[in-house]
Please model this.
Amino acid sequence: MTAPASEHRRQSPARRRVLDTAAALFYAEGLHTVGIDRIIAQAGVAKATFYHHFPAKDELVRAYLDEEYQRQRAAIEAMRTASIEPRQILLAIFEYLGKTGASAGFRGCPFTNAAAEYPDPAHPVRRTIAEYRRWSHTLFRDLLADAGDPDPERTATILMMLRDGIVVGSDLDDPNALRPVIRDALIRVLDGQTPPT
Amino acid sequence: MTAPASEHRRQSPARRRVLDTAAALFYAEGLHTVGIDRIIAQAGVAKATFYHHFPAKDELVRAYLDEEYQRQRAAIEAMRTASIEPRQILLAIFEYLGKTGASAGFRGCPFTNAAAEYPDPAHPVRRTIAEYRRWSHTLFRDLLADAGDPDPERTATILMMLRDGIVVGSDLDDPNALRPVIRDALIRVLDGQTPPT
DNA sequence: CTTAAGATAGACAGATCTGTCTGATACCGT
DNA sequence: ACGGTATCAGACAGATCTGTCTATCTTAAG
Model:
């Protein structure tokens, strides 16, 4: 009746502490600048314990990104099962982007930031990033299709651009100047259909 | 009649070689992963010479970004003095973004990539990035004003989002799928004015 | 010619980082 | 009660990184 061994591992408190500490440090300071020593010290975990749960640092980075991915997926899935209007979900997503972008400690997108430090597209970390981005694009496409967009694939690609732009801009420019423009931008993209050239 | 000492320094061939090598390596592999040793080895420059021209590695990073900034500025300035229609310049800029985004070795925006590795907004590297982004925004705003946009400030902010989104997407997704959508996105933003809520 | 500046090779210090290993302790299910 | 698993503390190896320093060589201006 107990959970299998792999499950034990996943829910180990030490592992949990490492993951939480790593998430905070990685996001705030970057992947290469934060060393294992600092993570385990702050998490209060022995080095052997860390390497018992993660075969290497890259695997911790992967786990950090994967958890963030699952977190976002769960939040969106909750909205979709709540049977909210697809267009309302889109508005809510972009409203949320603006809000968190202007919140304290915001430091851009964990995935694009990670990509900047892992150039090799074949690297496992990059594969996780690619997975996340495929999911995002598919999510936009499906919502747009439900909302009756005439070309969901194309509009979803534009929404990805908008999303990335908001996140980058909130980090590098004044997020409060950006915030009131987001809704406008979204509406231009959603309602401004392009006449065939 | 000779150039002043500081000018000598700037145009030193060794310095030039270091800067070129650093630019290639930094862009392709990241800032923290590329060490001084590798740069000077590949540039064929002695360590003492390097530290004669740059007080520290961060200063090299700054110089690398600053040079990219000046390069872009010069290219744009050339277009503007050629008295091309402002809207045509905007179209050309975004066309260019799509083209380079799909070219071999593309690895995203040097500035946003650098920001991911330098979290502290007060750091000189971040200041250079901020300067570049202010210039970009101002450029968009002025072009839009010339082109008769009813709210150049606001539309410029949206164009910044679009720009960042294209660059990120070209790096992390399929750039060839993105390319044919760019013009559409740009036109939706430029022509789709939002009715006052 | 003299002198100052640019350049070279490479050793060196000091810090840091990843990953391994030892040895001991606590806990938990069977 | 036993055996596996998680955990701890910390030493250790090996690599790497930044920045300094010595000692020598070339070059060009005055």
Chain A has a mean pLDDT of 93. Residues 5, 8-9, 12-14, 45-49, 52-53 of chain A lie near DNA strand D (CB under 10 Å from a C1'). The two ends of chain A are 64 Å apart (CA to CA). The first helix of chain A runs from residue 5 to 11.
